[in-house]
Design a protein that fits this description.
Chain A has helices at residues 7-49, 56-62, 102-105, 117-133, 138-143, 145-151, 156-189, 193-224, 228-257, 263-276, 280-294, 307-344, 349-361, 365-393, 409-412, 425-431, 433-455, and strands at residues 64-66, 88-90. By secondary structure, chain A is mainly α. Chain B starts with a helix and ends with a helix. Chain B is mainly α. The chains are: A mainly alpha (460), B mainly alpha (481). The interface between A and B is large, with 91 and 94 residues.
Chain lengths: 460, 481
């Protein structure tokens, strides 16, 4: 019937066009990011090696850019990638959030929707299902054909299952080839195919569970409604609330439960932390006095080490601890908010689907934090290596930037290149355990409700 | 006309009986309250953050002011104190100190109407150093929240009004045609157009009721009697009303053309998805393809080259261009020793900044072109037009932020005008000088300027409404024949 009134071909065509367009966009964006993460990262390290002679503290300020590594599965679900910086600048004294968010480059149009496969599977596919199935049982009943069908010996369960199967075949004819093609592309682009294909398999399962839940609940509504009109009146607002209002409302509730620090307060906190530490010349003065006493000498020139270098190392250590506390708290707030969002997936199935898909694609807060922690460890290693070089290299009576000690490539090459390993599929699956379980439970609950509704269905 | 109104009245009674009057009104009421609660909480938090940030700046400055006073006392009395060795060379009595260690920031306060619409504000940097074009505070909103979007009143209007319009009209004509009522209705002395218009008016009344509820709650939320806020709110409300009316006429048009309930519902749902989600996302991609964003890596590397070049910049050239910009500070000969070294350093730095601005402009041009193109896209979708109109009228768009950035630029000039003579002449920075340090005071963008920016979007909404009304009239006439 859906084929005859044109709904099924239209649905297939819409779904296929949407999937094709978003896939192309996703692949294009992924390739761009991959190019930056590989070739530019290599060039960046070469630039570090060839920076020329300068004071080691200047080199620590010269710094390095590091780039997040992403799984090819992120081409299917962009998640928070566009709202996160494209790279992080690592330099002396300050820990930074990733910079140059792609969203900053975009127009206000970008805020309407993120055109990725996640949007198609989590928002468009349920709408298509609603529009294909809203009249499945209510329509038959209103037209009086439900009685005729039952009189011919077909059970209500067979009728409903048949209608469900028709939709599964309709959508499956588009989705199955799509997932096969996506899998082959991911296999060719992946560094770790087992992990990435595992991520894709779990992602596909979550989306299938969400679409099945939508289909079964639509049939339940259609079975309970007096007319197709009433079914649509129930289903469209439900879709609106679950798919469109759900995510922003859930993040809002998450922020209410776990308030996070806003940008200005965060910056003021960092500044006041800096203020709690001694000013650099105070620390230098204290270090000089301490070292003079320790080595029992009267003149700075007689010291075997540079007080400026030691003061730098100590200041960096102290400030790193304070900054780490602030950044951990910020990322901790974000993660707790994401957890609240995920837990709301127990009540709202669309949230479980979106939350699980972000994690499996590696475009969620947990992955962002994983990368931020790795890059911060590298920053501390790089900066402290430069400061420590100053301890033995710098003249004892010279200030940090004073001319004299200017190492070159022999020091820069002692710093290893930044290497980041994306967490494996087991880590991602454990992070997404709650939303995956929620999606599965919702699917089972919907099926149970469906069976119950069919037993008590009104025939007229 | 009278007949049309009579039909509208009867239709309204029928709708009331089927519960379709109170449901949309109640949903609008609840969603408006929740979204404004959200908007108000965020706004109050932003206001508190701005105030806290300013206080934190002033507090740190105050501490060094006290320290400078203590040093003044020590210098005059000659008493020994716990002042570190290098403090006289680098500390709070040097004019360089407040610029480097405790720079006052230029902070952008939120506009009161941002309670209704957060727009782009969650992505915009709201604090810049008072001395250089460096953001002193990044935006730290959870990226997940940025992705999900803000649950504000504009979000509710943008999505709920089309949904209510579709739910009220999807079987406007087909429902009666399918039940065979249209023929008997038209056997009375009424035309098809009167029938359609009457039905449409009844539903439009419900939709306008939703709009009125949302706007009343919105006005209570902003709770301001200032001319600026009221005028901006009226523009906000007007564009919301136009948007609701546009969706009603779109739905009626679809009904007149398609005449089958299921197909009308499907078409309208897809149209909504197209105009409100897919269309804007595709058009954003179009603008990005038309004016591609240059590589930020290249930008960063070119900026690094600038820094390298500026250190080696010819002294006489750097000083000549510096005095062209600051003629009152000339000539260079009056500065000696450390002051002269700072003069050269700042001359080179300003030259570097000048070139950096040119470099930034190179990267900014494609972005501005994308913004201009996006304004033209308001003609393609009423949702885009509404979003732009609301962003600009509530001060949550790009123009207010550009207005702020201009003031930040002026603030830098003012700060440099204050500090340069002190730094170059090796002057002592006294404790009383701390009170004279320029403070940033934001002057709000006028509502006339905001309206100028929102004008094209509002024009597009009017155009959409007129076009869809004409189509409804044309189609009902054709159907009549």
């Amino acid at each position: 019937m859906s084929v005859r009134d044109g709904r099924a071909p239209l649905a297939c065509l819409t779904l296929a066009i949407a999937l094709a367009a978003t896939t192309l966009i996703g692949i294009h964006d992924f390739e761009q990011r991959q190019l930056v993460a590989t070739s530019t990262a290599q060039a960046e390290y070469q630039r570090w090696l060839n920076q020329g002679r300068k004071s080691s503290h200047s080199a620590a300020h010269f710094g390095q850019f590091v780039f997040p590594v992403r799984s090819p599965v992120s081409a299917l679900e962009a998640g928070i990638s566009d709202y996160q910086g494209s790279f992080t600048f690592l330099e002396a004294h300050t820990q930074k959030l990733a910079q140059f968010r792609p969203a900053d480059e975009r127009t206000f149009l970008f805020r309407f929707a993120s055109p990725d496969i996640g949007l198609v599977m989590e928002v468009l596919a349920p709408l298509i299902i609603v529009l294909l199935l809203f009249g499945a049982i209510a329509g038959e009943r209103e037209a009086g054909t439900l009685h005729q069908l039952l009189a011919s010996g077909v059970s209500i369960a067979s009728i409903a299952s048949g209608k469900l199967l028709a939709v599964v075949l309709t959508l499956g004819s588009v989705l199955l080839p799509f997932f096969v093609l996506a899998g082959s592309w991911i296999a060719t682009r992946s560094i770790s195919p087992f992990d990435d294909l595992g991520r894709l398999a779990l992602l596909a399962l979550v989306w299938v569970a969400w679409c099945s839940t939508s289909a079964v609940l639509t049939l339940v509504a259609s079975a309970r409604a007096r007319s197709p009109r009433q079914a649509l009146m129930w289903l469209l607002p439900s879709w609106f609330v679950l798919c469109l209002v759900g995510p922003p409302a859930a993040t809002y509730i998450a922020r209410l439960i776990v308030p996070s620090t806003d940008g200005l307060t965060f910056a003021a906190g960092i500044q006041s932390d800096r203020y709690r530490l001694p000013v650099w010349y105070e620390r230098l003065d204290q270090t000089e006095k301490r070292l003079l006493a320790q080595y029992s000498v009267r003149d700075l020139k007689q010291l075997p080490v540079s007080p400026a270098g030691i003061a730098m190392v100590e200041d960096e250590e102290a400030y790193d601890k304070l900054q780490e506390r602030r950044f951990s708290s910020l990322y901790g707030d974000w993660e707790r908010q994401s957890k609240v969002y995920t837990l709301m997936g127990i009540i709202v199935p669309s949230l479980a689907a979106s939350s699980a898909s972000l994690t499996m694609a590696g475009t969620d807060i947990a992955h962002a934090r994983h990368f931020a922690a790795a890059s911060e460890r590298y920053r501390q290693y790089l900066v402290q290596a430069m400061n420590k070089a100053m301890i033995s290299g710098q003249r004892p009576d010279a200030l940090p930037y004073a001319p004299g000690y200017t190492p070159g490539a022999e020091l820069w090459s002692t710093i290893d290149r930044f290497r980041y390993q994306l967490p494996d599929v087991r880590w991602a699956a454990s992070e997404a355990a709650i939303p995956i379980a929620s999606a599965a439970v919702w699917c089972l609950l919907a099926s149970g409700l469906f069976a119950y509704t069919l037993r008590r269905i009104r025939l007229a | 006309m009278r007949t049309t109104f009579q039909i509208a009245r009867w239709e309204l009674l029928l709708l009331r009986r089927s519960g379709l009057v109170w449901l949309p009104l109640a949903v609008t009421f609840v969603l408006s309250i929740v979204s404004l609660w959200y908007g108000d909480t965020r706004y109050e938090r932003d206001v508190a953050a701005v105030s806290e940030f300013r206080q934190s700046d002033e507090f740190r400055l105050g501490v060094y002011q006290k320290r400078a006073a203590a040093m003044e006392l020590q210098a005059t009395t000659g008493a020994d104190g716990p002042i570190p060795k290098y403090e006289f060379a680098w500390g709070p009595r040097k004019p360089l100190w407040p610029t480097a260690w405790v720079p006052l920031s230029a902070v952008l306060p939120p506009h009161g109407l941002q309670r209704l619409n957060r727009g782009q504000t969650d992505l915009q940097r709201a604090a810049f150093a008072g001395w250089t074009r460096t953001a002193t505070a990044e935006t730290t909103d959870n990226p997940l929240s940025l992705l999900a979007g803000s649950f504000d009143l504009t979000f509710v209007l943008l999505n709920l009004f089309p949904l209510v319009a579709i739910a009220l009209t999807w079987d406007l004509i087909s429902g009666e045609e399918e039940s065979g009522m249209t023929g008997s209705l038209l056997s009375h002395p009424i035309s098809f157009r009167q029938l359609v218009l009457g039905k449409m008016l009844a539903r439009l009344a419900i939709l306008m009721g939703c709009w009125a509820i949302a706007m009343c709650i919105g006005y209570l939320a902003i709770a301001s009697d200032s001319v600026d806020a009221t005028t901006r709110f009226l523009a906000y409300a007007a564009s919301g009303g136009l948007y609701a009316a546009i969706w009603m006429t779109i739905c009626v048009t679809a009904n007149v053309i398609i005449r089958r309930s299921g197909a009308t519902a499907v078409t309208l749902a897809f149209l909504w998805l197209l105009l409100t989600f897919v269309g804007p996302a595709v058009l954003d991609r179009v603008s990005l393809t038309a004016y591609a964003a240059p590589s930020r890596i290249d930008y960063v590397n070119r900026k690094r080259e600038l820094e390298k070049d500026s250190v080696q910049l010819d002294e006489s050239f750097a000083l000549r261009t510096f005095f062209e910009r600051h003629p009152r500070l000339a000539p260079a000969e009056k500065y000696t020793g450390e002051g002269r070294r700072f003069l050269l350093a700042y001359a080179r730095r300003e030259e570097r900044e000048k070139r950096a601005v040119q470099l930034e402009a190179e990267y900014e041009v494609p972005r501005q072109r994308r913004q201009t193109l996006a304004k033209w896209f308001t003609l393609f979708s009423p949702a885009i037009a509404l979003r732009l109109a609301h962003n600009e009228t509530t001060g949550a768009g790009d123009s207010r932020h550009e207005h702020y950035m201009q003031q930040v630029g002026n603030f830098h000039l003012e700060s440099r005008g204050f500090f340069y003579p002190l730094i170059f002449s090796n002057a002592e920075f006294t404790s009383s000088d701390y009170n004279r340090i320029p403070r940033f005071r934001y002057t709000e963008q006028s509502w006339e300027d905001a309206f100028r920016e929102a004008g094209p979007a509002t024009g597009s909404l009017v155009l959409w409404l007129c076009s869809t009304i004409l189509i409804v009239f044309g189609m009902t006439r054709r159907s009549n024949a």
